């Protein structure tokens, strides 16, 4: 009955947490399944650097040899990035088998939240979360990320969600589950590559301090569950909305034609969109992740003062 057998936390992260210094968790599915090699590894390392430059300790999470590993090394990031789609994309339901068999896995938003919570990390920065897929009324494809936000006490900083999802239904689901959706410097839910989606967030906030105060209150009152901070892609890197709508529609049509389903659909769509935009979507993706890492570090810093 010891958790240590299945949880490994780097010395650096352990020490930072023990001294109440800011730590930001980072996911690994974005490395293995979200971007091609070598941009995936370059981005993961740049993101860690961005967290450090903003005064926090990065903790990239993955499953390595059957352990939920928090604060993996540069070599392990390189390994996951090179292996790419051959690594198991690990969501909550995959954990029992990967851990008992001693396997490796790349953690999604859901499993990165689990690892962060087990280690005691409160803030996690990524690109986009999974959500309710378009057509979910017949496919029932709803990401486990949403259930995790409902139950695990970690704040997730993202750039909203892509319109490969049904953003309206995703917001309804989060409301039902009691997850607060904040917009950093915006009233409108950002749509990943684009700053606008036509949907409203629950509350606009303009400082990391306000976000930290909300996280603090949530914890004092034992409200449980996560909190979602949506941070729009910087103006200069945002993509044209009409173009993205058209390309995403094409990518979804291709996925339907090829019968892509389940855990394969998100990586398939990301890759297709990259091809359709001749790589411009990947460039935007990298910029928005860095932007979220910066905000994540600022929130963790404010939180460590409370
Ligand atoms: N959205 C992105 N890039 C990603 C993902 C989502 O723009 O890499 C990944 C994240 O790891 C997220 C997962 O948690 O996809 C969601 O997958 P699914 O829809 O199968 O739950
Ligand atoms: Mn799914």
Written overview of the protein:
By secondary structure, the protein is an alpha/beta fold. It has helices spanning 11-18, 29-32, 39-53, 74-83, 95-101, 109-119, 136-139, 144-151, 167-176, 208-220, 241-257, 265-276, 280-304, and strands spanning 7-9, 23-26, 57-64, 67-70, 89-90, 105-107, 123-125, 155-158, 180-184, 203-205, 227-230. Strands 1, 2, 3, 4, 5, 6, 7, 8, 9, 10 and 11 form an 11-stranded mixed β-sheet that branches. It starts with 6 loop residues before the first strand and ends with a helix. The model has no long low-confidence stretch (mean pLDDT 96). Manganese (II) ion binds next to loops. Pseudouridine-5'-monophosphate binds at residues 27, 29-30, 33-34, 91, 108-109, 127-128, 130, 143-145, 162, 263, 266, 270.
Structural topology:
Elements: E1 7-9, H1 11-18, E2 23-26, H2 29-32, H3 39-53, E3 57-64, E4 67-70, H4 74-83, E5 89-90, H5 95-101, E6 105-107, H6 109-119, E7 123-125, H7 136-139, H8 144-151, E8 155-158, H9 167-176, E9 180-184, E10 203-205, H10 208-220, E11 227-230, H11 241-257, H12 265-276, H13 280-304
Parallel strand pairs: 1-4, 2-3, 2-7, 5-6, 7-8, 8-11, 9-10, 9-11
Antiparallel strand pairs: 3-4, 3-6
Helix pairs in contact: 3-4, 3-13, 6-8, 10-13, 11-12
This protein binds pseudouridine-5'-monophosphate (PSU) and manganese (II) ion.
């Amino acid at each position: 009955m010891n958790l240590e057998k299945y949880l490994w936390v780097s010395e650096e992260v352990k020490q930072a947490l023990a001294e109440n210094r800011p730590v930001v968790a980072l996911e690994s599915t974005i490395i293995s399944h979200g971007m091609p090699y070598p941009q995936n590894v370059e981005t993961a390392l740049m993101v860690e650097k961005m967290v450090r430059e903003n005064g926090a300790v990065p903790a990239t999470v993955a499953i390595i040899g059957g352990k939920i590993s928090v604060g993996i090394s540069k070599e392990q990031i390189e390994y996951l990035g090179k292996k790419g789609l051959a690594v198991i994309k690990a969501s909550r339901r995959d954990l029992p088998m990967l851990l008992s068999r001693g396997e490796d896995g790349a953690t999604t938003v859901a499993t990165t939240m689990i690892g962060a919570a087990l280690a005691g990390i409160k803030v996690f920065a990524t690109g986009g979360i999974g959500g309710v897929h378009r057509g979910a009324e017949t496919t029932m494809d709803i990401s486990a990320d949403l259930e995790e936000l409902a139950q695990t006490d970690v704040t997730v900083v993202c750039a909203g969600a892509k319109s490969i999802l049904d953003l309206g239904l995703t917001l309804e689901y989060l409301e039902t589950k009691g997850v607060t959706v904040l917009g950093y410097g915006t009233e409108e839910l950002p749509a990943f590559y684009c700053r606008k989606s036509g949907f409203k967030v629950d509350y606009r906030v303009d400082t990391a301090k306000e976000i930290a105060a909300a996280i603090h209150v949530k914890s004092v009152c034992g409200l449980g569950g996560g909190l979602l901070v949506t941070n729009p892609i910087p103006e200069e890197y945002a993509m044209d909305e009409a173009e993205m709508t058209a390309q995403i529609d094409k990518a979804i049509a291709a996925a339907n034609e090829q019968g892509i389903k389940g855990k394969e659909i998100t990586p398939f769509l990301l890759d297709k969109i990259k091809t359709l935009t001749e790589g411009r979507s990947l460039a935007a993706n990298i910029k928005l992740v860095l932007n979220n890492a910066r905000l994540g570090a600022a929130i963790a810093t404010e939180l460590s003062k409370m």
